Amino acid sequence: MLEIFNAHKGRYGYRRILIIMRNKGYTINHKTVQKLMKILGLKGKQRKNEKYHSYKGEVGKIADNLLKRKFNADKPFEKLTTDVTQFKVCNEKVYLSPVMDLYNREIVSYSISLHPDLQQIRDMLGGLFTKLPDDAAPIFHSDQGWQYQHSEYQRLLSDHNIKQSMSRKGNCMDNGAMENFFGRLKVEMFYGEHFETVDEFINCLKEYIHYYNNERIISKLKMSPVQYRTHSLQS
């Protein structure tokens, strides 16, 4: 148990440790895992309540909330969600703009920038468009941030047969899946960590996203996002 906890740098609580131990053949329940973790002094990292706000009023067209908090999908690229979050590093601000596929919670595209501008959103979309299947017509959800109201952003979605969806004003849980990802990311690789330079932080951020996609177990899926996608395609 200690080996599992340390291998994932204290990022795993009892639920994910339980999944790994059962995968290794141990017959054990969650109460026993919780008890042993308490005895060993193992406590998963806790999140803080911080959020970057990009809302600047109605500066463009507001889309309807097509997602309606239905954060599950039946196939890849059926429902996607995005947002922007901010990190303060070495007296600089770094912004992350990811795209999550709600089928398996995989981050299928992302861009990192020192400026939360339209170019960052173009880069995020560029990465998405290279992976989007030709026959896909996904719902793409976001909050009402100014960049998602921008006419160029909305045109690019329309050009790729993507249906835009937006959270209601002031309802962050309308984008709960992405909010949860941001919270977990900051707990597991940012809070309490020291970075000598912005470049070091950006490299660690990229490494974490790779770890999240390929290794980190999603409790509901009982495997990592990429493992789940690969497994489902083989079934």
UniProtKB/TrEMBL annotation:
GO molecular function: nucleic acid binding
Domain of life: Bacteria
Pfam families: HTH_21, rve, rve_2
Domain (Integrase catalytic): residue spans on this chain: 72-233
InterPro entries found in the cross-reference section: HTH-like_dom, Integrase_cat-core, RNaseH-like_sf, RNaseH_sf, Transpos_IS3, Transposase_IS3/IS150/IS904
One record GO biological process: DNA integration
Gene3D superfamilies (UniProt xref): Ribonuclease H-like superfamily/Ribonuclease H
Function field: Involved in the transposition of the insertion sequence.
Name of the featured protein: IS3 family transposase
Source species of the chain: Candidatus Aphodoplasma excrementigallinarum
